[in-house]
Amino acid sequence: MKDTGELTVDPAALTRAVQALFKQAGSSEVEAALVADQLVGANLSGHDSHGVGMIPRYIEVWRAGELHLNRQPSVALEAGAITVLDAGMGLGQSAGHAAMERAIADAKRHGLALNGLRNSHHIGRIGHWAEQCSRAGLISLHFVNVISNPVVAPFGGSDARLVTNPIAIGVPRAGAAPLVLDFATSKLAVGKVRVALNKGQTLPPDVLLDAAGQPTQDPAALFSTPNGALLPFGDHKGSGLALMCEILGSALIGGPVMHASPTSRRIVNNMLTIAIDPGFFAAHGALDDSITQLVDWVRASPPADPEAGVMVAGEPENRARRERAAGIRIDAQTWHQLEDAAVSAGLAAADWRRHAGV
Length: 358
Ligand code: NAD
Prior knowledge:
alpha+beta, 3 domains, Hypothetical Oxidoreductase Yiak, Chain: A, domain 1
């Protein structure tokens, strides 16, 4: 432990601790493994905002009876290459995995799948689902809406109307890691503001408005009552994409949309996945070559910052995985919240720490 109280935890041990916590709460062995894999995987890929720090919120919502463990999504619609699954507020890591398995099977059969997943609890880092499709050799596009307390202002507005509606696109590559473009349509993901608050940091300017609609760098402004609002990335462009996520990611598949949804502490995600099997295209081999040459061409641009170089989507996450394989740093505040969540799930704090090797 450092002086700040920050811990460095072995990823395999952290995975075991998360599994133990969810099994204690009642998750099956498989579900506990899915949730641990995705959350620790988010920390490993550099996105602490969507890592184990989400567990306290999940446990709070589960205890409130608004998140269900071991619930498999039901089929709401099947028509050729189109499937809509309803997760019934099951754990998002189970629901997302089942939805991607279905999308992969449909795309292998038809060349293309349109898969809707609605009424799921938080499905975490969306790039994780693109990676599941990439491992099966599929290109995938994901449009997601988030139903929770509004935290993002529309471009030109001054109060929160939407959430951080993310978009991801995954492209598998021959002999290389997939390209995974995956971001929130707000300038910052909410979890990154939570991480800054827990670490006592200030935010960059031009990211957040306070509850009075004035710019602020204080992360606490997002969590005050009434709360402030994050700004959309790319002004009208990100704001427009967030709106399209409401329509494609949820309204189209019969899911809830922001203006008509009561809020609570739960985080509902709805996701439209379009999965494409490049094997159905005649020029499949040429596609691999094209992607390789294109990426080389882009990366060959003389770097503006020689230290950073030119990266393509997915590369920062791969770098983080290499750096964090030896240990994941968790700030003291988040660690305390995790211990409390373990206790709340029925796992003694000492057992949580023992599993985590701390
Ligand atoms: P971000 O701003 O860190 O951007 C990440 C994307 O940009 C990645 O594709 C990454 O590879 C790429 N990237 C980053 N730096 C780059 C560089 N220098 N050169 C080239 N590419 C680069 O992401 P974010 O908006 O903070 O989102 C973080 C995570 O939050 C995402 O995984 C997202 O799915 C998740 N999220 C989830 C929800 C939900 O409700 N489930 C909501 C919002 C966000």
